[in-house]
């Protein structure tokens, strides 16, 4: 039954209605971007091909042996207590074939180096306690693994042929610079890790992150990870944030660029239960590009995606946790699904939310090329709100080509995927144009969509409300005579 704000009943009139946006160039341009998103590729994986050579050095408790080995490399080694310092000529290039560090030993590499200094290590480097690196470029042929004391890296560039693993405990600090790792970054245990602003070119790991999947960044540390901005992230195989972990990328800056490819199991981003992730803003011409699914797979998780003119997702946008979407257009090749597999509200951005998207337009392709395995929403609609999503705000941009469009669904007449708001999706606020011209809009099981003082214009093939569902809108009338009109566009 259709009612006015004063609860009186509207008189229904049945007559043909023209689709008001059938010829909209803004809609057609937005839909055309889906083809561009479908054709996007992952950033190239780094291929650090580092040479061999040099002589070995052992940092242990025999001063004579270590000092002699350092001289064969062309450097000087001195020990004070449990700390060895390796000093090479400023601006020089030196190569070490292998580094061995005894238990309890700290090592300081090249503290008087310059930006032109180069230290090559033609093997894996594994610390035992804290390792500290002075200015310059460090090339490590194998893996780079921290000890219990963490890592202090003050170099200009770090190029690793294997993976970077700062260690499972302690505090690691990496300064501003360029970081390249062929086989990923692992952030594990109770370690706390921070990076300065820089460029991060990271390839796919050959070791699974958690239960499955090979990623570029695997963050499972309870200590927390912060990467300052403005930074450029080229992650060939995306990122996974494990349960209880916290990570912030491009923190405190607007000028970031994010290009995340797909992991071996199809995710550009995956956040597990309790994971807290913040992806910074890319408002100064940088990319905000996800080459696979963006998914919160566990309850209590939070994902904040920063502001950008365009957010391209070559997959699905799904959640069982909370998402805060900063302003911009989100072009999703697959479907948008909140709660189809359970979950619901969580603390995110300082408040308990399900979905908070203010200044956002969702352009949804529901393309058949994107797998819907695990979707959980009946009929796999293009847009779904379900389960415990009791705090949802979706409000469009106030200006620009897509001003006032909240959702633009599939535009092909052969794609009839629509929208489903079902059990548990209470207290949802959707303002603006919800445009699903070829699919149904179904609300059932107590789902409630309010207006929060805004206007909802719903265009769908058909609209179905049942089992206590409520659909609200508060559109300001034009002209001198107030009018209350509901239009269903077939």
Can you offer a commentary on this structure?
Helix content is 5%, strand content 40%. It is elongated. The model is unreliable at 477-486 (pLDDT under 50). It is mostly beta strands and 490 residues long. The two termini are 19 Å apart. Strand 2 and strand 3 form a beta hairpin. The chain has a 25-stranded parallel β-sheet that branches. The protein has a 17-stranded mixed β-sheet. Strands 7-10-13 form a three-stranded parallel β-sheet, with no helix packed on it. The longest helix has 14 residues, at 25-38. It contains two helices and 47 strands.
Number of strands: 47
User: From the helix content, strand content and strand pairing, which structural class follows?
Assistant: mainly beta
Quaternary status of these chains?
Answer: single chain
Envelope shape = elongated
Output mean pLDDT. 91
Low-confidence parts: 477-486
- Major beta sheet summary: 25 strands, parallel
- Tally of contiguous helical segments: 2
Query: Approximately how much beta-strand content do the residues carry?
Result: 35-45%
Radius of gyration: 27 Å
- Gap between N and C termini, in Å? 19 Å
User: Helicity range of the residues?
Assistant: under 10%
């Amino acid at each position: 039954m259709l009612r006015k704000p004063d609860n009186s009943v509207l008189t229904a009139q049945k007559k043909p209605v023209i689709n008001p946006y059938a010829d909209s160039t803004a809609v057609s341009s937005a839909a055309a971007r889906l083809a561009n998103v479908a054709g996007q590729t992952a950033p190239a994986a780094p291929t650090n091909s580092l040479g061999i050579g040099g002589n070995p050095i052992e940092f242990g408790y025999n001063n004579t042996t270590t000092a002699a080995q350092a001289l064969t490399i062309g450097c000087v080694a001195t020990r004070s207590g449990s700390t060895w310092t390796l000093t090479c000529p400023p601006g020089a290039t030196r190569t070490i074939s292998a580094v061995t560090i005894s238990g309890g030993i700290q090592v300081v590499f090249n503290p008087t180096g310059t930006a032109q200094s180069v230290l090559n290590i033609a093997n894996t480097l594994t610390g035992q306690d804290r390792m500290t690196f002075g200015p310059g470029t460090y090339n490590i042929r194998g893996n780079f693994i921290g000890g219990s004391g963490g890592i202090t890296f003050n170099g200009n560039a770090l190029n690793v042929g294997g993976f970077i693993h700062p260690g499972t405990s302690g505090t690691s600090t990496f300064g501003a610079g360029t970081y390249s790792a062929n086989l990923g970054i692992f952030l594990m245990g109770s370690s706390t890790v921070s990076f300065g602003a820089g460029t991060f070119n990271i390839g796919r790991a050959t070791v699974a992150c958690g239960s499955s999947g090979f990623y570029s960044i695997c963050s499972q540390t309870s200590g927390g990870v912060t990467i300052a901005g403005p930074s450029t992230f080229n992650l060939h195989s995306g990122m996974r944030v494990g349960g209880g972990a916290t990570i912030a990328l491009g923190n405190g800056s607007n000028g970031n660029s994010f290009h995340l490819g797909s992991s071996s199991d199809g995710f550009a981003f995956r956040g597990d239960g309790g994971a807290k992730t913040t992806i910074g803003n890319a408002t100064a011409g940088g990319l905000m590009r996800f080459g696979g699914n963006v998914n919160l797979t566990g309850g209590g998780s939070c994902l904040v995606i920063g502001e950008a003119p365009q957010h391209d997702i070559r997959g699905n946008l799904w959640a069982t946790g909370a998402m805060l979407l900063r302003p911009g257009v989100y072009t999703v090749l697959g479907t948008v699904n909140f709660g189809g597999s359970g979950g619901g509200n969580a603390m995110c951005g300082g408040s308990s939310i399900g979905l908070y998207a203010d200044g956002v337009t969702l352009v949804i392709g529901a393309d058949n090329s994107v797998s819907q395995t695990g979707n959980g929403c009946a009929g796999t609609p293009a847009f779904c709100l379900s389960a415990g999503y009791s705090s949802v705000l979706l409000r469009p941009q106030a200006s620009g080509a897509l001003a006032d469009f909240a959702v633009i669904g599939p535009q092909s007449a052969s794609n009839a995927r629509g929208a489903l708001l079902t059990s548990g999706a209470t207290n949802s606020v959707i303002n603006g144009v919800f445009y699903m011209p070829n699919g149904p809009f179904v609300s059932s099981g107590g789902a409630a969509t309010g207006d929060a003082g805004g206007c909802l214009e719903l265009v769908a093939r058909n609209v179905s409300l049942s089992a206590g569902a409520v659909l609200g809108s508060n559109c300001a009338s034009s002209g001198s005579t107030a009018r209350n009109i509901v239009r269903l566009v077939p």
